[in-house]
Each structure stands twice: as C-alpha cells, then as structure tokens.
Design brief:
The complex is a heterotrimer. Chain A contains four helices and no strands. By secondary structure, chain A is mostly helical. Helix content of chain C is 62%, strand content 7%. Classes of the chains: A mainly alpha, B mainly alpha, C alpha+beta.
Chain lengths: 93, 91, 520
C-alpha cells in the first residue's frame, strides 16, 4: 500500500519536473507555462521526491527506507515517461 | 589502440593489485586499522580504482604519457609494498 | 579533444558491451529470476504445501539426524522461513568421506520426516547459474563472470561520462518510435534504473571480491585461512571426546539467540560433534531479518546449553562489505521491495538485450549490401538469437520439464537442467539455419509459446492449477502463472512486431531508403 502511494508521488514528481521544462509543456498541458509557474513546478517536483524519501525513511528507517525509495523513484520515472509518451502521441490523432 | 587496451586491462590490473596491497598494508601498519578491516577496505576500493583507471586509459590524450605515469606509480607502490613487507611480516 | 574522448569511450562501450553482452544477458536474466528462487523452488515442488514453524522444524531436524547420522562430524540445518516450508539438512559423515549428493542431505517437513517430493534443483539452479554457469569448472565460470561484471561497471561509467546529455533529455525518451526505438529502449532502461545498475554491478563484484582481488588480504595475511578464521570465526572442530551425551533441546537456545539479536530469527544451525560431550551448536541469523548478508552468530555448548562467547567480526569495512552483499542478494527484502528488485532486474535484462540488438540495427543501415551481410555481422545476429529467445525458451522448458519428466526418474534434477540447455541449443541451431529475420520471429514466438504452456501444463499435471489457486488463495501459484503469462505476452508481442517490421520492409524497400537519405 505504502509502495503504491510512494510510486504515485514519485510519478507526480517527475511529471512536475517535466512540466517545468519548456519543450514538454505543450505535450503535457497543450500550452506553454509562464516562467514563475514553471519554477514552482520544479520546486514542487523536487519537494515531492524528498517527501517520498522522508516518508519511507520514517516508515522503514533510514537504511531500508533509502533502498526502497530508490526503487520507487525508478518505478515512478517509468510511469511518468509512459504518461508523457501517451500525451505526446495524442495531438497527432 | 593496442597500447591503450594493454594499459586499460592487464597493466591496470597489475597496478590496481599493487595499490590494493599497499593500501591494505598502509591501513594496518600505518594507520592502525585492524588487519581484516584494512584488507577488506582496500579490496572494496580496488574496484573503484580499476574502473576509473580503465576509463582514464581510454580518455587521456597521449598513450606514451599514460604508460610512463603507470610505470612510475607502479614502481613507487611496488617499492612501498616491498619496504612494508620486509619491515613487518604477515599474519 | 572532447570529441576524441567521447569517441574512444563510445567505442569502448560498444565493443566491450558486445563481447560480454551475451554472458551479461544470461547473468541478468537468471539473476533476476533468482530474486524469487525460494518461490520458484516451491512452485517446482508442488507437493509441499503450507508453512512450517522454525522451532518445531529444528527439533524435527535433530530427531531425523539423530537417527540417520548420529556419528557425523557435523550437521547443517537450514530452517524454513516465511518463503519456504521445508527444512534442508546436510551432514558430514563421521568416516570423513564426502558422500554423494542425496546420500548426505535431505529435505524434511516440520516433524522431521524426509519428504518424498519430486527431486529438483528448483530456483537454486538459476541462482547458481547466475555466477557459476554450468558444464564448466566453477572457478573458470566465476572469473568469466567477474570479467563481465567489471566490463559492465566500466561500460556504465563510460556511458555516464559520454552521454551526460541523456539526463537533460530524460523526458524525451520515447517508446516504439521507428528507427530510434531500440536506442530509446536501451536508454530508457539504462537511465531509469541507473542507481540499480550501478549498485547491482558493484555489489556483484564485491560478493566474489576475495577471488578477483585477493591481494588486499594477501598483503596482510600469509594464508587466507587465517583471515577467514578472524572474520568468520570458524574454529577447527574439537576432537570427539568419546563420552556420549545427548544434545539439549534446541528450541530454548534458539529463543535465547534470537533475543540476543533484538528478536531477529535464527536461519541456520550447525552442530559439530553431535551426540558427544564436546558438541557445539552455532546459530546464524536468518538472512531475511536484516540487510547485512553476514548474519550474527551465537554459539552454545551442545551438551549443556551453556552460552559460549561467539566470535563476531566487526569493523566499518567488514560491515560495509556485508551490507553490499546483502543489497545484491536482496534476501532481506519483503514482498514489495522484492518485486521492485525483480522489475529492476527485468529492466537490466532488457537493457543488455536491447544493447545487443542495437549493435546490429545500427550496422545494418551501413552495410554495403544489406541482403548479404558480412560474416561478423551474421555471427552477431545469430548469437543474439541464441542468447535472447534461446535462453528464454530454455528457462520455460526448465519449468515444463519439471512437470513433465517422470517423478522417479534417476538423477531428475540433472535431467531438468539438461532440458534447459537442450532447448537453448536447439533454438541456437535453429537460428543458424534459418534466414535471420524469420528466425527472430519464429524463436520469439516459440519462447512465448513455451511460457504460455507453463500454466497450462501445470494445471493439467498438478492439482494446483490457476483456478484452484484462485479458490485457495494460493498467491504464490497465482503470481507464478501470471508472470508466465506476462512473459508469454511480451515474447509473442515482440514476435508480432518483428514480423510486421519485416512485412513493411519487404513491401517498401525503396521508400525506406529514400526517406533515410532525406533524414540524413
């Protein structure tokens, strides 16, 4: 359960990071995002990744928590890339 | 290319082995770490050293300089190891 | 200069990857399966059900060994845990001979009765193949595997050095987009699981470090056995006194040992000089109870139950080594993390496999005459077929053989292993004689079909088919079937993709070349 939540958080974090980069904004939300918002998204993305680590560290202890966190962040990245791929495909249709 | 390959693999292994042995001696005899931990610490470090050296062997501009540098450090490490082994024995 | 550095690194990455890629692929694939080695063994012994209590199992094992090997030099007992339900015992006969396999070992149930299950090497074989290979001396195999791992480590580092751009282009990675798709598959799997790849390769080297880099130990110790004594506390066994004295009940001792480790369970027991006044019992902590691989130990006098101060090696470097080995083997991992390990391992397998295919894809475009490639190209292409669908088919056939070979076949475990390699060899030969494109489709489809057959054959030959597993809530068997079906789907999908690609290529060879000319 906790894994699912953490992977979802990590995925959201990567989507935020993608949203903060100019060349992905059109794919994700269909328009460009103002610089201030982009910066906010970048901060939110990193914060979410840190939050995941804090969550696992708190639940499982620093050693095991860090290991689990790395695995979950990788899975979150997979999901995020899949979502970006899916969104990037849509306008073509 | 052949000179680099030789440097990156067999010569690298020799040099890394020398460095590992010397480091193990240094940690134990020089810095007072217990011999088991000194040996294992040197062993763990050796893999980092080998892979970095392999990359350096392909990355540096001059193969000649690379070889001179490797032979030089090998001689220094070998001398240090020999001195250390003659001054105090092994368990 | 920058460019030449990049170039030489790229060259190094390509060729070292190609030379050792086939071996690395097999290591990754079987190593990934080995994260579930206990579960695979349970699947391969469908007669064993339920779970067992460690304390009762220890007592049962002692009863069995007292009957079968009362005068042994030593007993070794591997207790059941959350993942396995059987006790494995092994003994060193008193006359000093090394008995044949099966004569000095047994698989027991909780009550200490030898269970007559179909004999199999189970998941253990896949685990051992991962670093010992097969049909060759173990020593050679381990050196080969070590060389491959070292190359992998340098290939990863050179990849990071040369392709820093990959991180900036992280979100540009695309699935299944024409010509770039192989490159992207390689990159996606490499970049996303980079921490895993680095960790698994480095810690893999550490597991066999004293073989690959013995000079650190040799510098301080004239003989490696002195080092081992210091670290593992292996004391030479005391002479038997000849005064018979029965072994005390192990259950209270287990509880005492466990209490000394903050409640972590006992995983292994060894007893030297059982039944003698000099008997010594050594408990080792269960590998599932903590990350570090080298478990804590506790020693007791076997005749009196007196606590003997156990030797425990300590120190930062030893602890680091132990944690690294633990991280590699993942024995500490609970279900969620174990699946993450498994998925990361699949990612690594795909990374190596796609890298191998990439080598041919990149060069095919540059061939002077694509219809008749030169020998080296053909060789790589054929070896790729042998390595990727070949090994996959072999593993599926290994599972099928477990269900289909007669239960009382002589040397059954070896026959199961032989069928894996026969299937692998057959696919390899098939790839040699067929046209390469067609061979890819056929062998991928064959691998898919073999994986798809596993749940079917399981349902037909045991009472633990998919439907029965669902009604019984037998999660291990459900998950095994589902993984087989998922693998089958992936291989069949890949076979379909290759067939589609070939059909397109055959239909429009002209259009393809002209478009490529434009894009370049």
């Amino acid at each position: 359960m906790i894994h699912t939540l953490a992977i979802a958080l990590a995925c959201a974090a990567f989507l935020m990071l993608a949203l903060s980069m100019k060349r992905h904004q059109r794919d994700l939300v269909g328009r460009t995002v103002p610089e201030a918002r982009a910066r906010l998204a970048r901060i939110a993305g990193w914060l979410l990744i840190a939050l995941c680590w804090a969550l696992e560290g708190w639940m499982l202890g620093p050693a095991l928590g860090t290991i689990v966190w790395i695995g979950e962040v990788s899975m979150g990245a997979w999901l995020a890339i899949a979502i970006i791929n899916w969104r990037a495909d849509r306008p073509a249709r | 290319m052949a000179a680099r390959l030789l440097a990156a693999i067999p010569a690298n292994y020799l040099l890394t082995s020398l460095a590992t042995a010397t480091l193990a001696r240094l940690l134990w005899r020089g810095l007072g770490v217990d011999p088991a931990n000194a040996s294992v610490a040197a062993m763990l470090a050796s893999f980092v050293m080998f892979s970095v050296l392999a990359l350096v062997a392909f990355g540096v501009r001059s193969a000649l300089k690379l070889w001179l540098w490797m032979i030089g450090s090998g001689a220094v490490l070998g001398a240090g190891l020999w001195l250390s082994l003659t001054s105090g024995g092994r368990l | 200069m920058k460019d030449s550095l990049r170039q030489s690194m790229a060259l190094f990455h390509t060729w070292s990857g190609l030379l050792l890629g086939w071996l690395l692929f097999a290591m990754f694939a079987t190593g990934t399966a080995a994260y579930f080695q206990d579960e695979i063994t349970r699947w391969m012994q469908p007669e064993v059900t339920g779970s067992a209590d460690p304390e009762a199992s220890a007592q049962g094992a002692v009863r069995y060994l007292n009957k079968v090997a009362p005068d042994a030099i030593s007993w070794y007992i591997t207790l059941p845990n959350g993942r396995s339900a059987t006790t494995q015992v092994y003994w060193q006969p008193g006359d000093g001979t090394r008995g044949k396999r099966g004569e000095t070992s047994a698989v027991l149930d909780q009550a200490g009765r030898a269970i007559t299950v179909r004999e199999t090497s189970g998941g253990f074989f896949l685990y051992r193949f991962h670093f010992d290979l097969h049909y060759m001396p173990v020593l050679w195999a381990r050196y080969l595997v070590g060389i491959a791992a070292m190359f992998m480590l340098t290939a990863i580092l050179s990849g990071i050095v040369t392709h820093k751009k990959i991180f900036a282009d992280f979100f540009m990675l695309r699935f299944g987009k024409g010509q770039r798709s192989w490159l992207d598959a390689h990159n996606v799997t490499a970049v996303i699981a980079l921490p895993f790849h680095l960790m698994i390769t480095f810690t893999g080297l550490v597991t066999l470090a004293s073989m690959y880099m013995p000079w650190g130990i040799a510098a301080n110790y004239a003989s490696p056995s002195v080092f081992q004594e210091q670290v593992f506390g292996r004391e030479p066994a005391a002479e038997r006194s000849g005064r018979a004295q029965p072994l005390v009940d192990l259950a209270p001792l287990m509880r005492a040992a466990s209490a000394g480790w903050g409640g972590k369970q006992v995983g292994y027991i060894s007893v030297t000089n059982p039944g003698d006044a000099t008997a010594r019992v050594l408990f080792t902590r269960s590998p599932g109870a903590a990350i570090a691989a080298r478990g804590e130990t506790a020693a007791f006098a076997g005749a009196t139950g007196k606590d003997l101060a156990a030797h425990t090696a300590s120190g930062a470097a030893l602890a680091t080594e132990s944690v690294m080995i633990g991280l590699h083997t993942g024995r500490f991992a609970q279900w969620g993390l174990r699946w993450l390990y498994f998925l990361s391992g699949i990612g690594g397998t795909v990374m190596v496999g796609s890298g191998l295919v990439l080598w041919t894809v990149k060069r095919r475009a540059r061939l002077p005459d694509p219809a008749r490639p030169h020998f080296g190209f053909r060789l790589v292409e054929r070896l790729n077929i042998a390595a990727i669908p070949g090994l996959a088919t072999g593993i599926a056939v290994y599972f099928l053989a477990n269900r289909l070979l007669p239960a009382d076949l002589a040397q059954r475990p070896d026959r199961e292993i032989d069928s894996l390699f026969l299937a692998w060899l057959a696919v390899g030969l098939w790839g040699m004689v067929r046209p390469a494109g067609r061979a890819w489709t056929e062998t991928l489809a064959l691998a898919g079909a073999c994986f798809a057959a596993v749940p079917v054959v399981n349902a037909l030959t045991t009472s633990r088919g998919f439907a029965a597993s669902i009604t019984n809530g037998d999660w291990l068997f459900i998950a095994f079937d589902l993984v087989m079906i998922a693998l089958a789907a992936c291989f069949l999908h890949a076979a379909g993709k290759v067939a589609q690609h070939r059909a397109k290529k055959a239909a429009a060879p002209l259009r393809r070349t002209s478009r490529k000319a434009v894009s370049q």
